Every structure is written in C-alpha cells, then in structure tokens.
C-alpha cells in the first residue's frame, strides 16, 4: 500500500465517522473548488452511513457552473458550523477560505497547493494540476460509489483548473482520471456544452484582451471594466492563447483593487512573483492583489529582473 493510499484511507475514515460535515471552498471560487465540494458532498451521502448531513459553506460561484448547484449555497449557520467536522477543499491557507470561521488546526484539508499552516489532517502538495484529480484518485483507490453529480463535479474541477488540459503540471494520470470518470458514465461532450460562456461574457473577455502590452518576457492586460469572478479564469486562459511570451498577467479591475492572475508557459516560477506581492499559488499559475494601477510597472519590472 503506497503512502497516498494510506492517507486516503485515513482521511476517509475520519470523514466517515462524522455525523455532520461542513465543506469549505475558497474565496473568488473557481470550478476546482466548487466541483470538488459538490462531488465530495455527494460522495459522503452515498458512502458514509454515519453521516446525518453535509453542507457546503461558501458563495460567489461562476455563473457558467451554476448547473452543478442544486440547492442554494451560502455560509452555514453558526449552530451547524459548531457541531460539524470542517473539510476544506482546494485551499492552501486560512486567509483564502470563504468561511473565515474555520480553524485550520481543527479541520481537514484536501488540496493541491504547497503545504502551508497546520491542519488536523491534510492531503496536499503541489503535485497535481487540479484538486479534482486528487479526489478522483481517492474515489478510484477506495472504490467509492458515484453518481452523475460526482462525475460532473470532478470533471469540472479537472477541466477548469487545467484550462481543458492546456495548463500546469499535467501528467498521464490527469488523463487517466478523466478516462476513469468517463468509464463510470460521464457524458463529456454534454458537460462541455453546459460549461460554455454566454455571449455577454464572451464579449467582455474579447474587449479585455484587445489591448495587450509586452515587455521582456511578460505580456499583460489591464481591464477598464470590473471583471466578475464568473469570467476571471476564462479571461486569463484566453490571454494565454493570444500571447507568445513566457509569462502573462491579467490585471483585472475590482471595486477597490486589481485582481492579478499570473501564468507561465514552462520554466518561470510565477509563484515567487505572487508571494513577493503578498499572494501565492503554483509554479506556473498564481495570483496576487495590487491596490493601485501604478503598481503594475513594479510587477512587470520585478518579473523581468528575475528572468
């Protein structure tokens, strides 16, 4: 039995023994955190006899993924939160958890970011391109029962965090896990159709990508419009398709700051840039925040200095 299988069995034992469970997603949520939470909720219902109830505590999920959500999701009540086991998905640190009541030392974590902070029990490390891949492997390893909600949730998680197999540390296992989901009954083409952007969202992405600037190894855009979480990830993905530099950044306007999503094609570690500016992430995919537009030049100069 390998070490990961041991961890899967240990964490699933803790989950299986809990009567009440709160699943926690991250801020500015994407398809990986939402898909994993939805899938995990169904997996617990299907496979854990001791479970009385399992709820997701979060919000602000992308519009094009709303088909995954059957019941409205918001922060759970204090009474329910207090009596439940907390399980955090796709989130490396407490500051990125949507539900800030979570105490990491008292919570489980299923993640694919570099291991940070102290947790009651965790499976983590920057070894997989998506948390959906990890949970799919858990399902396969433990031979858990699944349904179409589990299959779609995990597939959405993998597809969105790999940008449909175009980003980050994808391996043969990534494709094996998608193949496994399809072997269990996932309708891949139907799912991709459900995930499409609408015309207004596509127009906003197109307008944002019209004015691309390049200096040294980095290309970037600065949006004039406020960019909702609904299109943040697809916008960054589209920008990557349009540039030929090693690094690209989308400086996306928000109400009182700019959300900065940074990516690299191969060898440049963007997480060190994100950490320098108070953010974090993976080797080829990370993010940070700046307060004012004048800080853009600081980020561009810092990247080119590291190159």
Automatic annotation (TrEMBL):
<feature type="domain" description="DHHA1">
    <location>
        <begin position="218"/>
        <end position="305"/>
    </location>
</feature>
<dbReference type="Pfam" id="PF02272">
    <property type="entry name" value="DHHA1"/>
</dbReference>
<dbReference type="InterPro" id="IPR003156">
    <property type="entry name" value="DHHA1_dom"/>
</dbReference>
<dbReference type="InterPro" id="IPR038763">
    <property type="entry name" value="DHH_sf"/>
</dbReference>
<protein>
    <submittedName>
        <fullName>DHHA1 domain-containing protein</fullName>
    </submittedName>
</protein>
<dbReference type="InterPro" id="IPR051319">
    <property type="entry name" value="Oligoribo/pAp-PDE_c-di-AMP_PDE"/>
</dbReference>
């Amino acid at each position: 039995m390998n070490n990961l299988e041991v961890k899967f069995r240990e964490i699933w034992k803790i989950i299986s023994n809990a009567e009440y469970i709160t699943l926690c997603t991250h801020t500015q949520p994407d398809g990986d955190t939402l898909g994993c939470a939805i899938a995990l909720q169904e997996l617990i219902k299907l496979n854990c006899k001791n479970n009385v109830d399992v709820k997701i505590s979060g919000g602000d999920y992308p519009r094009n993924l709303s088909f995954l959500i059957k019941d409205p999701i918001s922060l759970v009540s204090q009474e329910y939160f207090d009596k439940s086991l907390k399980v955090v998905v796709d989130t490396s640190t407490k500051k990125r958890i949507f539900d800030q009541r979570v105490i990491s030392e008292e919570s489980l974590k299923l993640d694919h970011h570099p291991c940070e902070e102290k947790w009651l029990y965790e499976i983590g490390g920057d070894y997989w391109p998506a948390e959906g891949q990890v949970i799919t492997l858990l399902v396969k390893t433990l031979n858990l029962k699944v349904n179409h909600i589990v299959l779609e949730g995990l597939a959405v998680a993998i597809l969105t965090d790999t940008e449909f197999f175009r980003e980050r540390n994808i391996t043969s296992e990534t494709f094996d896990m998608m193949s496994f989901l399809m072997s269990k009954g996932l309708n891949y083409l139907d799912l991709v159709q459900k995930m499409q952007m609408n015309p207004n969202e596509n127009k906003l992405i197109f307008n944002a990508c019209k004015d691309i600037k390049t200096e040294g190894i980095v290309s970037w855009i600065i949006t004039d419009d406020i960019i909702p979480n609904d299109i943040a990830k697809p916008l960054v993905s589209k920008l990557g398709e349009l540039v030929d530099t090693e690094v690209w950044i989308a400086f996306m306007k928000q109400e009182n700051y700019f959300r900065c999503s940074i990516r690299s094609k191969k060898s440049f570690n963007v997480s060190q840039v994100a950490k320098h500016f108070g953010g974090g992430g993976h080797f080829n995919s990370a993010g940070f925040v700046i307060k004012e537009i004048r800080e853009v030049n600081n980020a561009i100069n810092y990247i080119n200095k590291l190159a």
